[in-house]
Design a protein that fits this description.
By secondary structure, this protein is mostly helical. It is 75% helix and 0% strand. It has helices spanning 2-10, 14-32, 52-63, 66-73, 82-94, 98-108, 111-123, 127-140, 142-155, 165-172, 179-192, 196-209, 214-228, 231-244, 250-261, 265-278, 283-295, 299-312, 317-329, 333-346, 351-363, 367-380, 385-395. α9 (142-155) runs parallel beside α11. 34% of the residues are buried.
């Protein structure tokens, strides 16, 4: 106390400033936590209060008053004050300056904030911002984020020339456990551009690093089939996947897929069945097996399985689309129509749903309804040839 009094004599305003600061801080705390309904002095704190601005900024952020927050933050921006810069990034983000926020988070090495931003950008379908956020994550930790960035580049159909960071990482991190993944991704880029020899070369480089990575074997098999429909090599790659992961259905499913694509539907059924048995909770495997039962005219069993799947996934429009054809083939006409109509109701943007619905109504003689459905299809996709042809046939019998 004696020291405080002495300080008051030496600095006459010292005691007054301390008291004013304490009064303002006490009121701020009570106002912040809702114990004080009004605080007119909120934005006019004592000039001697060193932390008032940051407290007001914190309050503004909590209330969503980003205009006030940015007004207070801008004059005192300081790259060395990480807490202040984090608040600044948050304000930019919520005000819609996403690139500004991404840049600040990159400078602060805020991986968590950037990863959360990626999820939001994906949700709002801003692929440009997803890419920017991943690029910043790569700058923070290139070894960790090379693969996610490369995957995003492929997803957005960027050429390998734009993804030179993959080659840099292969060179700069020779001991990384991600080496085989990076080499496989380079192969994927080459496959995307139909540079088959380069793709095959990089897949084998990846396998040399990690021969037990089933994803590489899958990519290699897909390349063989895409290049010249080499069924034998594609199946051999899939069998390697079975050797590596015998408990999983992936290798069995891929063999079924290649056989089906090669019109060996009865043989495909065998492999799809094993895949479905290996992973009974994998919807894709179950649906592929059930579709193939239908396509091999085993309608009773197919419909039973479809109905089980629909109980599990009642809002799956693709499943309803598939079962509608099974019902039709089984001469259950009304249920067939109900299924395709529900598919359209759930997902009204799929033109091929309308084509099936129109076809079903044509087959049952309801030409007026079929015409209406084809016209709707053309409003969604005016350039759709099938819908145009169907409508032309109706209009010019």
């Amino acid at each position: 106390m004696i020291g405080l009094i002495a300080w008051g004599f030496i600095t006459p305003n010292g005691v007054h400033a301390a008291v004013a600061n304490n009064i303002w801080s006490t009121k701020f705390v009570r106002y912040y936590f809702g114990m004080l309904s009004d605080f007119p002095q909120l934005i006019t704190p004592p000039k001697t209060h060193l932390h008032a601005n940051q407290l007001i900024i914190k309050h503004a952020l909590s209330k969503g008053d980003y205009d006030l927050a940015i007004t207070l933050i801008t004059p005192i921006l300081d790259d060395s004050n990480s807490s202040l810069m984090e608040n600044y990034a948050e304000v930019l983000y919520f005000k819609g300056d996403f690139i500004g926020a991404i840049n600040v988070w990159e400078r602060l090495a805020q991986e968590s904030s950037l990863r959360h931003a990626v999820l939001y950008f994906q949700e709002i379908k801003r692929n440009d911002l997803v890419l920017s956020a991943y690029q910043s994550l790569y700058q923070i930790n290139p070894e960790k984020y090379t693969s996610p960035l490369a995957i995003e580049y492929r997803k957005q159909q960027k050429p390998l020339e734009d993804a030179t960071f993959l080659f840099r990482s292969v060179q700069n991190f020779p001991d990384s456990d991600q080496q085989s993944t990076w080499l496989r991704l380079i192969g994927d880029f080459y496959r995307d551009s139909a540079e088959w020899d380069e793709a095959e070369s990089y897949y084998y480089k990846a396998l040399k690093k990690n021969p037990d990575d089933w994803v590489i074997w899958q990519s290699l098999g897909e390349m063989y089939y895409a290049h010249n429909s080499d069924l034998e090599k594609a199946i051999d790659c899939s069998k390697k996947i079975i050797e590596i992961t015998p408990e999983r259905g992936r290798g069995y499913y891929l063999i079924g897929y290649y056989l089906q694509r090669s019109n060996a539907v009865t043989e495909a059924l065998h492999w799809f069945k094993i895949a479905a048995e290996k992973e009974p909770n994998n919807k894709n495997y179950q649906v592929s097996y059930t579709n193939t039962l239908r396509d091999t005219n085993q309608l009773t069993e197919a419909i039973e399985l479809y109905e089980v799947l629909i109980l599990q996934y009642p809002e799956d429009s693709e499943l309803l689309y598939e079962v509608s054809w099974a019902y039709w083939l089984n001469n259950e006409i009304e249920v067939s129509k109900q299924s395709i109509e529900k598919a359209i109701q759930i997902n009204p943007g799929k033109v091929y749903y309308y084509l099936r619905a129109g076809d079903l109504y044509e087959k049952t003689g309801n030409i007026v309804k079929a015409k209406e459905i084809y016209e709707t299809a053309l409003t969604i996709d005016p350039a759709n040839i099938q819908a145009s042809q169907k409508l032309n046939q109706i209009n010019n019998p």
